[in-house]
Specification:
The chain is mainly beta. Helix content is 8%, strand content 48%.
Amino acid sequence: EVQLVESGGGLVQAGGSLRLSCAASGFTFDDYAIGWFRQAPGKEREGVSCISNNDDSTYYADSVKGRFTISSDHAKTTVYLQLNSLKPEDTAVYYCAAVNIPSLDRLLYGSSWDRAPKEYEYWGQGTQVTVSS
């Protein structure tokens, strides 16, 4: 059974930090990329970051570059998203999702890793991040 389980969300003041985890199981970890998406109430889902587990290439949305860092622990089949310098506009439910490498390559060739979330095969249940001002 494929599972993606997010954890690490919570309430933090502006300027604070959180580390989100996405524990993956039930598929060959290195054959997939893991993306983080977020959705705030009343807003469209947006891509935050992605890491390709075959070569550890990383990708970031402009809104989080320099503040968020994605990393992958292959031994634990877990992807982390370090959130620093948090802002109230980062408040959202954060989801991790898995896309196979060939599909990621097609997305990148088209324009961007996050242009078609429907290409991501597996999704977690989400973890809430709330940043107070």
